[in-house]
Amino acid sequence: MGLDGVELVMAVEEEFGVSLIDDDLVKVVTPRLLGDLVFSKLQHAEESVCQSQHAFHILRRALVQAFGLGRKQVTIELRLRDFIAREREKDSWFSLKEACQARTWPALDYPAWLISTRRAASLVIVVASVSLAVHAGVFWGTGLGAGFLLVCGAVALETD
pTM of the predicted model, to two decimals? Predict the structure, then answer.
């Protein structure tokens, strides 16, 4: 193998993060065979790597790069809201996506179906609580009923 071939092999190894052995490279005589060899190495490498751990390392590298955090600061327990101001949340979220070089990225907001389900559940809880209170004989004139409604309303608003 000439110098160009050695440089090509080194570039492929670096780009794909694999190690190509000379014994395997002797059989490679076409670009297709090189592709097949690299693919087989990648398949084997992916089977031995924990996907969660791999994702954490990508995310940690991105957090260090994008936000200047120390490597040891980034742990599994780290909450993004601990170091990102609420008003910069969306911009920071997309900066993190770019730093991770992700093709897809989850939305920062709750999905509409989840919000409407939570609101409906809150309404059911309030109606059921009031109904139970009325049937249990709570007298609305004593102020207990009004206080109860205020508490239930606060719980319903809090879940939004």
Answer: 0.43
Residue 12: which of 23, 67, 29, 31 has the closest Cα?
31
Neighbours of 63 (CB within 10 A): 21
Domain boundary among 100, 120, 137: 100
User: What three-state secondary structure class fits 29?
Assistant: coil
**pLDDT tens across 132-158, in order?**
777 666 545 555 555 555 555 555 555
Question: How far apart are the C-alpha atoms of 37 and 27, rounded to whole Å?
Answer: 10
State which H helix or E strand residue 55 sits in.
helix 51-67
**In 3D, which of 71, 75, 66 has the Cα closest to residue 102?**
66
What DSSP line would sit under 108-159, residue for residue?
SSPPHHHHHHHHHHHHHHHHHHHHHHHHTT--GGGTHHHHHHHHHHHHHHHT
From the CB of residue 62, how many other CB atoms can be counted at a distance below 10 Å?
20
Domain that holds residue 125: 112-158
In a domain, 106, yes or no: no
- Please check whether residues 95 and 57 belong to one and the same domain: yes
**95 within domain boundaries:** yes
Summarize pLDDT for 117-138 with one digit per residue, the tens.
Answer: 989 998 888 888 877 777 666 5
Tokens, residue 154: 């606060």
